Amino acid sequence: MASEAASHLNGPPEGQRNDPPARKPRRRRATGRFVRRRPTVLPRPEHVTIIGHNSRTLETVGLFVGVGLSVRVYTTSAQLELQLAPYPGVTTTLITDAYAQSPRDLPPPPYVITVDTLADSERIGGWLPETWARFLVRGTSRARKHPPGFLTLPGLDHEDRPVVMRRLASLALLDRLCAVARAASRPLILLYGDPDPDAIGAALGLATLWKRAGVDCDIRYTGEVQRYQNKLLLTYLKKGIERLRPEEQAAADLIAVVDAQPGFWRDDPPPAQVVIDHHPEKEGTRGRTFVDLRPDYGATSSMVTEYLLDAEVPIDRKLATALIYGIATDTDDLKRHTSAADIAAFEALHQRADRTFLSRLEKSQIPPAVLDYIAWGISHRVIYRDLAVVHFGVVPTADVLVQVADLLLLTYGITWIVCAGVIDKPAEKGGRRLVVVFRGDGFQQDVGRRAALAFAKLGSAGGHRTMGRAEVPLTADTSVTETVSLLVDHLFARMTPARRRRFTRTLSEHLAAPRPADPDEFELST
Question: % helix / strand / coil in the chain, to the nearest 5?
Fold first, then answer.
């Protein structure tokens, strides 16, 4: 029975003791409790260039002067030149060619065009440098058609200044990101291992951004898609997101790693020039051509959604679905490690996404083939204080560990979970390895830090306060029983040797219990 198989290393469960109940142990102080990650602040621009003249030019200049930027104005209006003379930090140049050609001393972006006629805006747009930061501010006589190649700048009030400044900084970042892609002939977006929805959504968003900038690219993952929902999502998207072939990485002259960092690969990390991720910084990430790390964000999909919204790139239904599902899974529906940026991205995507398909994903959490493994794992848990540990032995997929860890975290009095198992695959599919999945409530424990401290020297390991993972390569002659000692000794290095031996013995005894039958087809077809 399940209650007989489950073990309590604290002693017999309450109600089975003959001795008086022990005093409740003093709650240990949680390391890092209430720690808030510092929000990401992008480098603010130092200047802005305004070209044209209409009824909103003065208002536009005042917006940027008010935030301390230097402003360069090119105009054909002598009256505007006189009006701007008293403004601090404003340099005005009077031009006489009706905006027919670029001024010789035109500064770099951002550019704000304040003209009302379509002809003027198209004329200026023809000689502006290639950049995302090209805004059009119309006066009272607005043309019906907004010309292509210009962004809108709807808010010019005092309270809009922080939003405008953040957007200008974001567009400067996107200019760098797209310049790197335009310089490549065969760019490749690379996802680590078995890609989760956040990686899939972020990669598809980046590919959409690059496509808008005139760059085509492939999206590939290095592992094997195992989770049913992820396979269902890829089938729904129909975007050619496939497993990496060795010749593809060799042929690529630009590699972008999304929702991961090169340090995630223990062996042969990819020579990535672009890294976009929301995980804490890994060693060796800095110093690449383009790096955008935002550990305060709950999902990389939120970062890429922000890119798309700032650049006013259209987000179609399938892209919105992939992005919002990536945000939802990594933040547990905005309940875990969620920032204001995650909420804003989720809100922007909600009306665009395919909610019927999202509902299907939510109701297809567990393939029937996994049920026996889940039942075995729950019934062979080991409880130690506020921790539940399960070692499955050999499992067909790491998804078993994830499913059980998520379910066990719902247990009253349990604040963190460790589920371990051995994946025995050929070398081209990751090889034989010990996979350890961590889950925590984010309050009492920082499980990502625990994963890194225990296993980073043996393999790849890390994560967030609420989610962590470690993968340790194993030799062909490493037995499953040996992995139990490896797990306990590194996870509980400060535990007394006697208790570690008892922990190891209990987990090893569980491995001797009858195993769930391996189904003929573990992964369901989609």
Answer: 35, 15, 45
